[in-house]
């Protein structure tokens, strides 16, 4: 019996390709040139399965043009590149990679918070540029992490990981806002108190964004929200581009409306708003929050295992639309 055909849309660990080759006829993209929408449709012709990343959009147009497709495994916990309703309607199973990246991503959120609040990259650029001539009392004086108020917008698994790091490791007071409130036991474990979004914005010394992107969360932080924040506050976005209005943020940073920002994700990435590149009080990283070697391997293996489970047993380890499985 011939093997089902699989497209791996971006470069991936060779060991994961070898594993998948036991079950699939695999087409890879090891040169790692991202496909345009048209190229993706072309590459998906005759394929039953795809291993995608956050930049590969699977929507109604792609589905209509790729009728052989049965399953897409995203190597990411976020799945705003999937039109889940259209996939369910087309009977295409979608999976993602939750849990395996929670702690690594929470570590990174905390690292970005510390780098931003303590002005680490700004001061390093100064030193590398040969500008360090003398010590001075206020040189790169930033804000404290310990004992401050940590605000978290979006309190899923990663938000809870950041809350624990802040409360238990740094003695921070943790407040959060989320679509749904955690239960009492979860709040106690994270030492976190639920507040309104407005109170979160007004009270946080450091605000970390960890909510999923959807049309409803588009520009959750814009000029109005930034105006409510403390002028000494830092803002960290490790969620998705589009949750923050990057133009409004650049203006707020330039005007010192808030003290600083740390951004791992951007509207329209890999492009970065030109104004963000010229303000000094922002730390910029290229969407690497989950990028530790063990975690990226775990994500790739989980995506592969979802594809294998689907074809072997009509199951998935982490399905996003189980209705598509039932309909099969
Ligand atoms: C995720 O898993 O959603 C990360 O942002 C990596 O894409």
Q: Overview of this structure, please?
A:
The chain is an alpha/beta fold and 328 residues long. It folds into two domains: 5-98 and 293-327, NAD(P)-binding Rossmann-like Domain (Rossmann fold); 102-284, Rossmann fold. 39% of the residues lie in helices and 14% in strands. It has helices at 14-21, 37-44, 60-65, 84-89, 102-117, 120-128, 157-170, 184-190, 197-203, 223-228, 246-254, 274-278, 293-313, 322-327; strands at residues 5-8, 25-27, 49-52, 71-74, 93-95, 149-153, 173-177, 192-194, 206-209, 234-237, 260-263, 282-284. The strands form two sheets. Strands 8-7-6-9-10-11-12 form a seven-stranded parallel β-sheet, sandwiched between helices. Helix 5 (102-117) crosses helix 7 (157-170). The chain is globular and about 75 Å long. It binds (2R)-2,3-dihydroxypropanoic acid. (2R)-2,3-dihydroxypropanoic acid binds at residues 54, 76-78, 101, 290.
Task: Please describe the topology of this protein.
Layout: E1 5-8, H1 14-21, E2 25-27, H2 37-44, E3 49-52, H3 60-65, E4 71-74, H4 84-89, E5 93-95, H5 102-117, H6 120-128, E6 149-153, H7 157-170, E7 173-177, H8 184-190, E8 192-194, H9 197-203, E9 206-209, H10 223-228, E10 234-237, H11 246-254, E11 260-263, H12 274-278, E12 282-284, H13 293-313, H14 322-327
Parallel strand pairs: 1-2, 1-3, 3-4, 4-5, 6-7, 6-9, 7-8, 9-10, 10-11, 11-12
Helix pairs in contact: 5-7
(2R)-2,3-dihydroxypropanoic acid (DGY) is lined by residues 54, 76-78, 101, 290.
């Amino acid at each position: 019996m011939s093997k089902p055909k699989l497209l791996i849309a971006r470069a991936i660990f060779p060991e994961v390709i070898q594993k998948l080759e036991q079950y699939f006829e695999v087409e890879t993209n090891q040169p790692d040139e991202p496909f345009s929408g048209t190229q993706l449709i072309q590459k998906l012709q005759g394929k039953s399965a795809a291993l995608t990343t956050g930049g590969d959009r699977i929507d109604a147009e792609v589905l209509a043009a790729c009728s052989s497709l049965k399953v897409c495994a995203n190597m990411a916990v976020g799945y705003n590149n999937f039109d889940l309703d259209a996939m369910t309607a087309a009977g295409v199973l979608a999976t993602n990679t939750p849990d395996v990246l929670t702690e690594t991503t929470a570590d990174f959120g905390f690292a970005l918070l510390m780098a931003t609040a303590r002005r680490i990259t700004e001061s390093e650029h100064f030193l590398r540029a040969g500008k360090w001539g003398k010590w001075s009392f206020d040189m790169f004086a930033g804000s404290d992490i310990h004992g401050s108020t940590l605000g978290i917008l979006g309190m899923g698994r990663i938000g809870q990981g950041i809350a624990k790091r802040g409360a238990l490791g740094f003695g921070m007071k943790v407040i959060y806002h989320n679509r749904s409130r955690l239960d009492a036991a979860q709040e106690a474990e994270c030492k976190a108190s639920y507040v309104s979004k407005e109170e979160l914005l007004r009270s946080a010394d450091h605000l970390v964004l960890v909510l999923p992107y959807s049309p409803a969360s588009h520009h959750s932080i814009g000029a109005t929200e930034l105006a409510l924040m403390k002028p000494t506050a830092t803002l960290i976005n490790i969620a998705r581009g589009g949750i923050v209005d990057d133009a409004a943020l650049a203006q707020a940073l330039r005007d010192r409306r808030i003290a600083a920002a740390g951004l791992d994700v951007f509207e329209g990435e890999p492009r970065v708003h030109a104004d963000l590149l010229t303000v000094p009080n922002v730390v910029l990283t290229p969407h690497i929050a989950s990028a530790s070697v063990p975690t990226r391997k775990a994500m790739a293996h989980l995506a592969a295992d979802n594809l294998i489970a689907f074809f072997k047993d009509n199951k998935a380890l982490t399905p996003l639309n189980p209705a598509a499985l039932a309909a099969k």
